[in-house]
């Protein structure tokens, strides 16, 4: 069907309601049924069903040498599944599990934002340094995916106070109901050290066995891995101009800055009125109070290592 951005939509989940749907059926085959040879580059872009494609290539990855996988990572589409296509809700946690499996198999995974994926440097200059996606990032993603799916299913049953970031602190709801009146939102409520905190709805990833070819520069996430999520709200990454979901702080209105982990003292904040600045500061103080009193909680990695989530990791297949 015709999609939100004029692109294709699989199963209609990405359909633009302003356009009349033009559905049609296509024949699909498992990758393993059509490819049985070494692969230099596999490109996957199937509107949220990337994990289905890679799962259909299990034999290829186990028996052959697949050097590179470039894929669009459509977490935002999967997150809409519980409401519109419940039979595909499992794709929410299948996304991070897919990437975990690639890393366990020996791939280095990096994220390419739009500047790199759709423009970037000339080919002869090679790839720039890119943030790496690690197992530590993805453990947060997997934890969030499980909680988000439970919250989305509860919302469908008219139980909206379940899921990520639920319930939001009462003081924050009173100060800024437009932003804190809801919870279980992505990327707002994603763990700030997760991959999901690094993009608004989708992004592009490159996985390669040739680690030297991908120049990693730090790791993904709105926070650095060293930050204390119980005491800090704003990230200390190399890109302070971006907040949660890589949202550009300078373009956000004053009432969206704090919810998206942007600092009220950001330089572009001077564009706001004195009253708006005061409102942002008040919200900033309320967030810190909520953090320090345990009203906003984000599990750290040491907690998750004892939670059983690590046991979900797939085992490394036979590789040469």
UniProtKB/TrEMBL annotation:
<dbReference type="InterPro" id="IPR006342">
    <property type="entry name" value="FkbM_mtfrase"/>
</dbReference>
<dbReference type="Pfam" id="PF05050">
    <property type="entry name" value="Methyltransf_21"/>
</dbReference>
<dbReference type="InterPro" id="IPR052514">
    <property type="entry name" value="SAM-dependent_MTase"/>
</dbReference>
<dbReference type="InterPro" id="IPR029063">
    <property type="entry name" value="SAM-dependent_MTases_sf"/>
</dbReference>
<protein>
    <recommendedName>
        <fullName>Methyltransferase FkbM domain-containing protein</fullName>
    </recommendedName>
</protein>
<feature type="domain" description="Methyltransferase FkbM">
    <location>
        <begin position="18"/>
        <end position="108"/>
    </location>
</feature>
């Amino acid at each position: 069907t015709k999609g939100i951005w004029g692109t294709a939509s699989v199963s209609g989940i990405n359909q633009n309601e302003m356009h009349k749907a033009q559905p049609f059926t296509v024949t699909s085959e498992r990758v393993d049924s059509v490819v049985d040879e070494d692969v230099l580059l596999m490109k996957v872009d199937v509107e949220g069903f990337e994990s289905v494609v890679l799962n259909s290539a299990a034999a290829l990855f186990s028996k052959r040498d697949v050097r590179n996988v470039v894929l669009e990572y459509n977490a935002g589409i999967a997150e809409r599944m519980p409401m519109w296509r419940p039979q595909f809700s499992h794709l929410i946690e299948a996304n991070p599990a897919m990437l975990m499996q690639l890393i366990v198999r020996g791939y280095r995974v990096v994220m390419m934002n739009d500047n790199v994926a759709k423009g970037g440097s000339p080919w002869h200059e090679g790839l720039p340094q890119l943030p790496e996606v690690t197992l530590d990032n993805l453990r947060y993603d997997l934890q969030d995916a499980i909680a988000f799916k439970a919250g989305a299913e509860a919302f469908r049953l008219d139980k909206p106070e379940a899921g990520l970031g639920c319930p939001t602190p009462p003081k924050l709801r009173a100060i800024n109901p437009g932003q804190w009146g809801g919870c279980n939102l992505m990327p707002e409520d994603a763990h700030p050290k997760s991959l999901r905190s690094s993009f608004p709805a989708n992004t592009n990833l490159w996985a390669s066995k040739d680690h030297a070819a991908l120049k990693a520069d730090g790791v993904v996430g709105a926070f650095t891995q060293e930050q204390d999520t119980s005491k800090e709200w704003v990230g200390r990454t190399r890109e302070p101009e971006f907040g949660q979901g890589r949202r550009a702080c300078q373009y956000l209105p004053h009432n969206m800055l704090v919810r998206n982990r942007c600092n009220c003292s950001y330089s572009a904040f001077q564009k706001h009125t004195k009253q708006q600045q005061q409102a942002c500061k008040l919200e900033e103080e309320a967030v810190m109070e909520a953090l320090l009193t345990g009203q906003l909680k984000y599990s750290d990695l040491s907690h998750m290592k004892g939670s059983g989530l690590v046991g979900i990791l797939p085992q490394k297949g036979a590789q040469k």
